[in-house]
Amino acid sequence: MRYGKHTETKLGIGLIERAITVLVLFACSPAAARISLIRLPHAAHMDDSVGGTAMPHSPADESHSSSSSSSNHSVARAFELARANDFAELASLLEHEPTVARAIEPDSKYSLLHIFSRSGNYHAVEELIVQWHCDVHHRDNMFRVPLHYAVQADTFSPSDEAVLQTIGILVGAGSRVTARDNTGMGIIHYAVQGGREAIVSMLLSMRVFVHTIAVPRSRPKTPDDAAAATTHGLPERGARTLRFFHTSLLEQWKRDTPDAETRYALVQQSLSLPRAPIECENNFEERPLHLAARAGSLSVVRVLLNAGANATATDYRGRTPLMHAVLRGESRQSLATIALLSPLSFHVNDADIDGNTALMLAAENGFTAVVAQLLRNRCVQPNLRNKQGLTALQLAQKQGFQDIVELLLASSLDSSTKIS
């Protein structure tokens, strides 16, 4: 932007005066001079006047400011609709302002795809990917992709079928099941925390059956849309994409895809997809089985064990999945999980980095029912000592848990009787 010669002269004089002020301040106070130096480069922009002369605004500036304000309002409205799971209203907004589809929230760095994935709204997810070219690889401020939220599925209580459809669409669009966030949590970690057996099974096997669907494609609305379609390799009009189904929908899928040769080809393509790593560790060296045991999710623990999860794996504190289940307490889910894990006699006496076994942790924390559950396993050794030289009995005595003391004494007496 150009101003009149008189205004430019005033601007130059103003900057010279500010520079002289900085030199004077530096002689008196270097700290004050540094603050003034920080402000110096912005002097012509922070103040609309120099030397008392107002700097003119062009109509283009005012138009840009108005347009920016309108766009910000549309973005805020779009995320408001997404959180209300109202895609119908959002689609109407996107028809008028297509660039809003790829907007990112300033603080959370969420995309619209993150929010709809979390609610299991697979219709919205599919439209955002196919019609509006949203990026399935975009990371939020926790470095999570939409797939992290899809497997979490903790808003609007979506059905397992809806969640599986959402996961399948994201994976079919190229989202990686091996992605991790900034705490090292993988997709499988989030699925395990969600406690849904069907989702964990799907991620571990990827043996889902697929169904072809026509992709509704309209002409790109803007040059940016056309560029995005080229960049992400989106299919052209009339092409087909893949949607994934859980095995429970196999019969319906067979009816929709009667050609056996086509079915075989699609199944082979599905089976070639990467599976979620069952032994991936987060930043605390916790594997999916640790999280499932701590959550007391019996069905998920069983799925993981059947898939070959290592029941003796330890986290950064040397704790096994059994120890995590013990520390959950005396809930019914926890006791059932302990009953499933403790018969694995080759690790029931493993100790953590402090030398504490699962029995010691239960005794020290006052979990009477857990101690009783563990003692049912004849391989448990109650007289082992930790690095402080204390047994489970002594830890219970130290904490004043008399009922556990009596239980352990009875167990020791019973053991000595059987030996003699």
Overview of this protein structure:
The protein contains 22 helices and 4 strands. Residues 24-55 and 207-253 have low confidence and may be disordered. Helix 8 runs antiparallel to helix 9, helix 10 (187-194) runs parallel beside helix 15 and helix 15 packs parallel to helix 17. A two-stranded antiparallel sheet has the order 1-2. The chain is mainly alpha-helical and 420 residues long. It has helices at residues 5-28, 30-39, 43-46, 59-83, 87-96, 112-118, 122-130, 146-152, 160-172, 187-194, 197-205, 223-231, 250-256, 260-271, 288-295, 298-306, 321-328, 332-341, 358-364, 368-375, 392-399, 402-419, and strands spanning 49-50, 53-54, 209-214, 240-245. It starts with a helix and ends with a helix. It is elongated, with a radius of gyration of 31 Å. Helix content is 55%, strand content 4%.
